[in-house]
Amino acid sequence: MTVDEAAQPEITTPHVAPPQSVVERPMSDLTGAVRRSRWRPARDDGMLGLGLLAGPANVIMQLARPGVGYGVAESRVESGRIDRHPIKRARTTFTYLAVSTNGTAQQKLAFRRAVNGAHAQVYSTEESPVKYHAFDKNLQLWVGACLYKGVVDVHRLFAGDLDERAADRLFEQGRALATMLQVDDEMWPADREAFDRYWQEQLDEVHIDDTVREFLYPIATSRLRGLTLPGPLQRRAEALALLITTGFLPQRFRDEMRLPWDAAQQRRFDRLMGVLRFVNTVSPRFLREFPFNVLLKDLDWRMRTGRPLV
């Protein structure tokens, strides 16, 4: 399926230069992420709300490892299935990002227990074509690495190019994202250059077969179960969502998903990201960081009232 060019809104902005594509750049490359502009936050932000746009692409990267892909596609945890309860699963994932990087020790412990309770039910059976277990440290490390890459890509696009301080801060956030559960601290790459080597090595383990690809395609188009717009609007919404998802994917993952990409699509993606970057930089910090800045409060409320955390 290709993105219908006619379905894409014509978006222009005279104020902000379109950002360059960042998804292929290594973590150790700190220069040339995006062009600087006068519309720039006074400091680098925490988790950016616009990062939600990269969520479907990040899910695809995580599930591109067969053990993760089949673990999610075959999951027996009904309440956590992204294909059936995407909003709830998104809340859980975003809360995980917020807790692992900015949560208190009590919040981390409570959320870790809740996630482990769900993960204990995720393991392969004799019928599974791939052997997996949600407590596999190597698979969890891969998921953490994908989350870290997603955070860096989002910051490069929407907050600006990284200096050493910002890059170091995000690298430590990546460590927290990976080690919140069973991943040992020493498993996390020693520095950004080591992460780049790890990432390149792990690309050899990436493979999306027909079963996982069929599972992932509705996620790529942000198709919500039970929510359908009138025909033309649905097609336009899915085409736009697919453009955004594909734009956030490195080419290796586009190929695995069989999602075409060309210079015209890159230009449309860049124009859209340029508009969103301008909106982001002139917005109050509270809006820039929403919903991550309220998820910890929601977690505290769930802990006090005994509601499920995941």
UniProtKB/TrEMBL annotation:
GO terms for molecular function: oxidoreductase activity. Residues 49-277 form the ER-bound oxygenase mpaB/mpaB'/Rubber oxygenase catalytic domain. It comes from the Bacteria. Coiled coil: none annotated. Residues 1-26 are annotated as: Disordered. PANTHER family: BLR2777 PROTEIN, ER-BOUND OXYGENASE MPAB_MPAB'_RUBBER OXYGENASE CATALYTIC DOMAIN-CONTAINING PROTEIN. This is ER-bound oxygenase mpaB/mpaB'/Rubber oxygenase catalytic domain-containing protein. The lineage of its organism: Bacteria, Bacillati, Actinomycetota, Actinomycetes, Mycobacteriales.
